[in-house]
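Late entry, evening session. Most of the bench is empty. Finally got around to the prediction I had been postponing all week. Sequence below, unchanged from the version circulated by S.P.
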Amino acid sequence: MAERTLVLHVGIHKTASTYIQHRLKGNQPFLKRNGLLYPRRRRDHLALVHALRHGDLQPWLDLIRLAFRKGLRPLISAEVLSVILHQPAEAGTTGSLLGRLQDQLQAEGVSLELVAFVRDQPAYLNSRYTQLIKRLYFASSFNRYVLDTLEKGGESDCDYERLFGEAIEDPRIRTCFLPFRSGEADPCERLLAAIGVADCSLLAPLNHQPNTQPGWQAVWLAQRLAANLQRHHPAVWRDRSCKARIRDALERLAEQEGWQAEPFQGVNGYLLSRIEKRFGAGNERFAQQVWGCSWQDIFPRREVRPSPRQPRDLQEQQRLESEATRLLEEGLQT
């Protein structure tokens, strides 16, 4: 029989979560041979998140009991969990969503194992902004986005003490925090190794790399498109399907033009200083608690070289403005 454990992979955002999820989905036989039950459909994972947020733990119990009947451990992956587990289970209460889930699991005799990748905040915020702006999620500048996140947290919260402090302090929960850095081994294989899969040599590869960085030119276009839609086309701004079509067209253009070769880098010296002032002390406490070393030992301070904020010459500006007009017109026609 499988160990009575629920495994949660909670992200964070922009740490190859989509890649991991696609690769897990495509390796169902391998996972079952290694004692894991991983729901194939992403909406099944998100439905569990939705149920948890609304105080309904029955879908979690149903999945857990199904897995245990099969002699498997359930594995759930949803990066949004990283920013909601610490939130109150109910308005005006002190108990968290994590506490509610843990209490129910304990009543069922089930242990909880939480695994998260952790990324240094400058790289995280840069990557997260790129993802959100290309989806036309908002029309904020990078500077405004970073400063708002430092002040309010929100959906891009990266205060690791706040996000994971309760899980670390709860002796009933096993936690594993994996540094997300360039040059590391495959993140899906690192995740599986962290939860006890000893040999990933038979894990089938993924044939495509989702969520690639579209480059600073695409970010510049997305900023202009988002501002135009928000200001002049409010109905389209609220239409997710229309914005998705514009985003897809923008990503195809970025790939055709090879813009990924010049990634967006919005962090400058001023923002780096603000980020380090906000998170420095907390990062150090977190690193000492979970890794037994300094944060700088894991994520050394690196020099940043911001990408261009504007087209570099008149010809490039005219070309990009022409593409912005075309993408907007095509998006409005559909």
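Two things to note before I forget:
The chain has a mean pLDDT of 95.
The CA atoms of residues 214 and 260 lie 5 Å apart.
Will write this up properly tomorrow.
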